[in-house]
Each structure stands twice: as C-alpha cells, then as structure tokens.
Amino acid sequence: MTTRRHAEVAGAGFAGLTAGIALARAGWSVRLHEQNDQLRDFGAGILLWRNAMLALEVIGVAPAIRKHGVVPDVYATSLNGEMFTPELAGYPYWAIPRPKLHELLSDAARDAGVEIVTGSEAVGADPFGALLLADGTRLEADLVVGADGAGSAVRNSLPALAQERKKYQDGVCRVLVPRPAEFAGPEWNRVIDYWTLEPDAMRILFITTGPDSLYMGMMATTSNERASRIPIDPEVWSARFPHLKPAIDLAAEATGGRHDAYQTNRVTPWSSGRAVVVGDAAHAMCPALGQGASVGIVNAVELAHTLGQHDDLDAGLAAWEGKQRAMTDAAQARSAYMAETRTLARGNGFTPEVMETANFVLDAATPELIA
Ligand code: 3HM
To answer: Quick one: which H or E segment has residue 311?
Structure first.
C-alpha cells in the first residue's frame, strides 16, 4: 500500500473509539465524530470477559483495564432468597465503571493519533466513500465507519443493509452508585444477581466496579412503569427487595442513570461499498449475556486487522464479516434466549454453550497475547 488510507468514523462510543484506535494503529488516518459536545459515556458499569480483554490487549488498552478495573470474587445468583454460586472457572471477567472504560479508550484514541471532533452529528454515508454530516458537510474517505449506536443514522441511510428488529418484555435501569462505608466490605466485592419472579419479574444485579463504586442493573418488565423509571422509584424497589433498601435509596439519588428496553437488531450485510457498521449499529442485542459492548469491541479490532491483510477493501470487508458473523449471530441469539426465558434467575445460566461468546479468540490476537 503506497498512500495512507483515511477513515471517517461516526460515534465515539466503545465500538467507534475502538475502531478508531485499531485503524490508527494499523496506519490509517482517522477522524472520529461525536454528536455530543462532550466525550463521555452515560452508562453505569460493565463486565469485560476474555474475548473483549484479548481485543483490548491487541490495541494496548488491557493493562489500564487491569489497573482501574476489578476482578469480582464470585458471581452469585439469588432467587427468592436462595443463593447459588455457579462455577465460572475458565471464564475470567473484569468489572469497570463505563465512564472509566470510556476515558481509557478516549485517551488511547488520542495517543494513537485519532482526530476527535465533538458536536459533529453524522446523518448518513455514501457507499462510494463519504460521511455526511448534519450541517451539510461531505467528508470523503476510503472507509466510513458507522458506530453511531442502536439507532444508527449511518446504517439507516444505507438501503443495502437489511434490518430485523425485535423487542422484548424486559428493560433495565442502570445506575452507578458511590460505594459508601456500608458497602465497603468484602461481601460486596462480587457480582450478586437478586431475582424475584412473582407477581412479575424484578431483579437487581449488583456488580462491584471498584473501591469507589457499584453498578446496579435494575431489571423489570417494561409494562411495570414505576419499576422502569429513572430516577429509580425507591418505594417500588424496596417493597420487593426490603433487605437492599440502603442500596436502593442510593440508586434513587444517583445521577446519570438510564433505562433501556431489551432489543435485538440483526443487520445484513454489515457493509455497503466503502461504508461499514460496527457495534450496536450492526448488532444491538439484549444485555442478558453481558456481551453487547464486548462483541462490538472484538469486531472493531478485527475489522482493522482484516483490512490490513487486504489491499482490496471489498475483499477485506467480506473476509471480516465472514469471520465475525457466526459468533455475532450466536451472541444475539443466546442473549435473546436468556432474556426471553430469564434463565439467569435459576443460577445456572452461564452454560458452556452460552459462554462460547466469552471465550471467542479473535484472529488479531497473537499467541503471546493469548498465553
Ligand atoms: C453484565 C450484565 N449481565 C446481565 C444483564 C441483564 O440481564 O440485563 C445486564 C448486564 O449488564
């Protein structure tokens, strides 16, 4: 390759930042557009399994995750007060606040030479090689990456990309709670998934995200309007989980929480000419498997790696989708099945079959990284 290839990326979420870093490290010039005026994540906490950690190793971000994240002691599940602790040997995972992960990826993007433009809204892509902005600007590129989330404007502007959408009965309020003295003890250095299924499903997933914070994922059917509200309605949650009242009161005071209804959006194919979609724009999935962001991170790193092996962009994009499609489809199907059947409530939801996603090894991972 003689001339430096140029990418315009829409969306500075986890997938967009990761794609930007990976492309820049592979020699591309990269400009990344974020529609918000600030570069930050609005989410709460996240689990990163081995698949995502390997991808983050490839782009040099994993050491910072190990420094700023934590390894929970156990993954416990409680149904109507009965506690299960499934064996998760062989499936290492890290927990970290989403704002921290976002900051680490933003720093890595700048270090890799990615030009980041905030307040820049993408409205579409031209498959002949241009990103289209809300202010009418047309930016030519060898590759346009739509990483603009589940409602992706880039994806929706490309008629060749077919979509199959499905919504589910549940949704989740996600908040990051400061960790006061009463939650400082080692009994909180865990993931604890508290379920009740009667008279309707309500669940509180606690994930330690370090000495200063706890992530609470508060799931309910979307028809339970009071339990689907942000800010959290402490009365309706404490009535169901009286022993968790102190944590629920903190969740009610938390700022920056959000509610998302569970949804799947299968997109085929993932590219049209010089435009490609990654992350939730390509494969929004239910959060039940805890893999939505991780699959996006893995696919973004593998995209840069595969394009580096092909002078011809069409061939590179086809090869990339060929490698990543089956794993991604399986992750969407597994998380949808887990959401529909609520298998996690029974405490044995992490079967070897569903955990194949967590142990997926991307081609970009060298043997030294895998070791
Ligand atoms: C990590 C994780 N796991 C499960 C869910 C869920 O079932 O909604 C959400 C999560 O963030």
So the answer is: none
pTM: 0.97
Query: What does the mean pLDDT of the chain come to?
Result: 95
User: Ligand 1 centroid vs 47 CA: distance in angstroms?
Assistant: 9
User: Using alpha carbons only, how large is the chain's radius of gyration in Å?
Assistant: 20
Take atom 9 of ligand 1 and give the residue whose Cα is closest: 287
CA of 276 to the centre of ligand 1 (A): 27
Q: In the chain, what are the domains?
A: 6-69+99-166+264-370 (3.50.50.60), 168-260 (3.30.9.10)
CA distances from 22 to 14, 127, 131, 159, 201 (A): 12, 22, 19, 27, 40
Q: What is the ipTM of this complex?
A: 0.94
pLDDT tens profile 37-47: 999 877 899 99
Quick one: tokens of 72? 């929970």
Which of these, 288, 295, 259, 290, lies nearest to 346 by C-alpha position? 288
- 122-126 long-range contacts (CB < 8 A, ≥24 apart) are 122/10, 122/11, 122/33, 122/35, 122/146, 122/148, 122/153, 122/154, 123/153, 123/157, 124/153, 124/154, 124/156, 124/157, 124/158, 125/10, 125/154, 125/157, 125/158, 125/272, 125/275, 126/275
pLDDT at residue 147 greater than cutoff 80: yes
